[in-house]
Amino acid sequence: MIQNFSKGKTLPLGAIKAQGFLKEQLERNKNGMGGHLPEIEPGMIANPFINKTYVKQWGEGDQSGWGAEISGNYYAGLIQLAFTLDDDELKTMAEIWVNGFIKNQREDGYLGTYYEPDALIHDDYNAWGTACGMRALLFYYEATGRDDVFDAVYRCMLWFTENWTGDKKTCYAGELIIEPMIACYHKTGDERLLQFAKDYTEYLVEHTTFFNSYKDFLDPKLHYNCNHTAAYGQAVRLPAILYTATGEEKYLRSSEIGIKKMQKKSVQLTGAPVSVTEYVGPTGAVQESEFCSFTFFNISYIFLNAITGKSIYSDYMEQLVYNAVQGAKKKDERAIAYLTAPNQIFATQNSSNTYHNMQVYSPCFPVSCCPVNSVAVVPEFIRGMAMSDAEDNLYICAYGPCSIKYKGWNIEEKTMYPFRNDIALKIISTGSGSLFCKIPQWAKKYTVLVNCKEVNAKKNANGYIRINGTGVIQLSFHADVEVISVNDSDCANKRPLAFRYGALLFSLKIEASWNKFYPNTETQLKPEWPWFNVEPVYPKVECTDAHERLGLRRDKFPWSVAVKENLSAKDVLVELCETDGYPWDEPFIKLHVNGYKAPLLNAPYAQRTFEPFGNKVEVTEQTELTLVPYGLTNLRITYFPRADV
Ligand SMILES: [Zn+2]
Q1: Burial class (CB within 10 angstroms; exposed 0-12, middle 13-18, buried 19+) of 324
Q2: 238 CA to middle of ligand 1, Å?
Q3: Where in the chain is the domain with CATH 2.60.420?
Q4: How many angstroms does the Cα of residue 278 sit away from the middle of ligand 1?
């Protein structure tokens, strides 16, 4: 057997199935973009792995690999959606694509989109786009066990080992090919694959200009603007993946430091990695994040969670998916924003601070990286909620309603986590190992009941408790409100305040008007798939003179508020709401806190969200602020300016 140095392994796709509100979200995804993107984007997505002959009109259409990225990432998401939702219609869609795709495999093993006689087969996007498609195929293999699908991937990996030899490699995103390469190595033991992954890793050390070699990640200093943030999110896990095959600690350390330094400087409290004009930047109230970076960092957290066995990475998964991800989705799953920020008064064609029309909500942009990745992120999170290890122990890493069936284990998890911090695990049957449950790092206290009897379970160094017994296990995590002084010192340095409770960050929700429009897209949009300018709603001004009316408007903005600098947790009231609706539509939990009106904070007809002027904000009377989870909002204030009181 080939040695695998990973501490844990994710369960095969399909072993964890969504229940409760997670299932509701996947159903909305199916009825929304998840089940319909091939209709909205027929050229790029419906047609398996098309190339530049078909997509000339798309941006730099001479890149044959662009269609591969989009199609590959969409189907990697769709396949996970199909099997975590256990949906036959989606499984059929997946099967048609998989069969159509592998039929294109060339005699010499090549599988991708660089088929034309003049194709530049050493393009970065050849390896990158193909790697995206290989991830999709490997998920399909994992869920169905179809050997012909695995063999297609394996043969394609051998093509790369033969044709991308020596210095015929690239530095931007192509190195993602290491991921399917090592996956095939673990199954076949074929040394050519491992050697290629090692060569590529060393090649990056010598050649990269994107600070994405394992040695760059080992350096504790994070360099802003060093790399495309989404590409950073993909590259950062590759050294750890190589570690699973070699056992060389330096590779594992490299990925761990690479994530740690991003968390420290460039990840918002929502879990969003900052991407200023798509590149790595510092955290701050109006600093934007690209949706596809959510998906790519989430994948890296799932890998690192399994490889290291450390539960901190599943805390990162929860933070990202239960906050940043939800706050960038329209709740019916029919539109997402390419770029979002903690403070956003507008989400329109004009509102982005950094990148033209990218705050607008839409089902599919001309640059469709983000829409396709938005389909994947929640199913991928669910796939990563539990893992196993060589002793067949089962670990519950991230919480949410689901069912788990794997090697004798049969567990139903009932919970409204993260809106409530109680979890009931019904253990229907156990496997041969032990059950381990994560204690989130924010939980300073917790209680564990096994069949209603309290047990003393001590947390181990990786953040898990071991639980013996069958029947019903009840976990309760004790959360305290956290009032956080946001570190935006590399940016505006306004030191705003934010409010967290358990895994959730809270925002002042700004009432929004969703105004449809139909831009000139390459494929004409159908009436049921509009784009939206999302604009704030505020009380009308009674004044007949048009200019005076504009000027007076400023006083009416409900989002012009500030809070006292020295607020503490005891100033914040937690309200658990009685509701049984969909928790991203209706709040299950609210926070109440006293703030101040700040009528001079915003100009009367600003079109985008600005940082406040000055150190502290001029305020007038007190006002009670009701905050809801960030994920329920699309327009919001999350980082509150400090009041001058
Ligand atoms: Zn993107």
Answers
A1: buried
A2: 20
A3: 394-478
A4: 8
CA 114 to ligand 1 center in whole angstroms: 22
CA distance readout (Å), 513 to 73, 516, 532: 31, 10, 9
* 88-103 helix and 124-144 helix, angle to the nearest 10 degrees: 130
Q: How many CB atoms lie within 10 A of CB 626?
A: 14
Q: Are 361 and 514 in contact (CB under 8 A)?
A: yes
- 437 Cα: distance to centroid of ligand 1 (angstroms): 33
pLDDT number for residue 378: 98
Q: What is the pLDDT of residue 247?
A: 98
Specify the domain boundaries for CATH 1.50.10.20 within the chain: 47-207
Residue 116 alpha carbon to ligand 1 centre in Å: 27
Length of the chain: 645
- What span, in angstroms and rounded, lies between the C-alpha atoms of 499 and 522? 42
The predicted model scores a pTM of 0.97
| Other CB atoms within 10 A of residue 87 CB | 18
55 C-alpha to ligand 1 centroid (Å):
18
Q: Please name which of 70, 160, 73, 162 lies closest in space to residue 123, comparing C-alpha atoms.
A: 160
Ligand 1 mean position, distance from CA 370 (Å): 4
Question: What digits encode the pLDDT tens for the residues 27-70?
Answer: 999 999 999 999 887 777 777 676 655 555 544 545 677 788 98
CATH architecture entry for 394-478: Sandwich (2.60)
What separation in Å is there between the alpha carbon of 409 and the centre of ligand 1?
37
Amino acid at 282: P
Ligand 1 centroid distance, CA of 68 (Å): 14
pLDDT tens digit sequence for 173-217 = 999 999 999 999 999 999 999 999 999 999 999 999 999 999 999
Q: In the CATH hierarchy, which fold is given to the domain comprising 47-207?
A: Glycosyltransferase (1.50.10)
CA Rg, the chain, in Å?
A: 24
CA of residue 555 to ligand 1 center, whole Å: 37
Q: What is the DSSP string of 144-204?
A: H--HHHHHHHHHHHHHHHHHS-TT---SSSGGGGHHHHHHHHHHH--HHHHHHHHHHHHHH
The pLDDT tens digits of the residues spanning 441-471 come to: 999 999 999 999 999 999 999 999 999 888 9
Q: How many CA atoms lie within 13 A of 60 on its CB side?
A: 5
CA of 74 from ligand 1 middle (Å) equals 12
